[in-house]
């Protein structure tokens, strides 16, 4: 009987130690997920470079915070979107209208008039006429976004 009690007691101790250890791991992982301030990053960078062997320091892209400025004022700039710029339908319609290929309302909806205007613009500019404004088409069309309306370069491209 004493051996049985000893084994039960031992299992309870092992379970308690295991559960206590898991709680500490969870607290540590939650602590790691908290955002760091610029001040904390500077401190981490300073402590890691002090303990490192002498070598050329790596250039850091993070600018250190100004001394005396609170860490809450430092804001990170959002990253630019990946890939080429994707224009809105209103921007496309405005540019097409300014280029003289679109006579409809600038309503932000791609209808048959908008699609025909895109195709006509693409044909006139030597771009594959698929009716879609991709990076190539937008590179040419975007120059008409801020100009005043004009007539198309060829008379056969404008249809009503």
Structure description:
The chain is mostly helical and 160 residues long. It has a domain of 56 residues: PGBD-like superfamily/PGBD (Muramoyl-pentapeptide Carboxypeptidase, domain 1, Orthogonal Bundle). The chain starts with a helix and ends in a 19-residue tail after the last helix.
**CATH hierarchy: architecture of the domain at 89-144:** Orthogonal Bundle
Which structural class do the helices and strands define?
mainly alpha
So what's the CATH class of the domain at 89-144? Mainly Alpha
Which radius of gyration do the C-alpha atoms yield? 32 Å
H/E element sequence: HHHHH
> CATH fold name of the domain at 89-144, please?
Muramoyl-pentapeptide Carboxypeptidase, domain 1
Q: Which percent range fits the helix content?
A: 40-55%
Largest sheet: none
CATH superfamily of the domain at 89-144: PGBD-like superfamily/PGBD
Could you tell me the strand content as a percent range? under 5%
The number of helical segments is 5
Low-confidence segments: 154-160
Strand runs, count: 0
- Separation, N- and C-terminal Cα atoms: 100 Å
What is the approximate shape?
elongated
């Amino acid at each position: 009987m004493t051996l049985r009690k000893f084994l039960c007691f031992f299992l309870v101790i092992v379970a308690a130690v295991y559960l206590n250890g898991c709680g500490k791991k969870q607290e540590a992982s939650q602590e790691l997920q908290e955002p760091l301030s610029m001040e904390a990053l500077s401190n981490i960078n300073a402590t890691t470079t002090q303990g490192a062997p002498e070598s050329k320091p790596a250039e850091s892209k993070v600018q250190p915070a100004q001394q005396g400025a609170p860490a809450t004022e430092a804001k990170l700039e959002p990253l630019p979107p990946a890939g080429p710029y994707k224009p809105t339908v209103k921007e496309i319609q405005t540019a097409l209208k300014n280029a003289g290929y679109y006579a409809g309302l600038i309503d932000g909806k791609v209808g048959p008039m908008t699609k025909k205007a895109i195709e006509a613009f693409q044909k006139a500019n030597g771009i594959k006429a698929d009716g879609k404004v991709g990076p190539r088409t937008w590179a040419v069309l975007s120059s008409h976004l801020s100009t005043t309306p004009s007539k198309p370069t060829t008379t056969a491209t404008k249809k009503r």
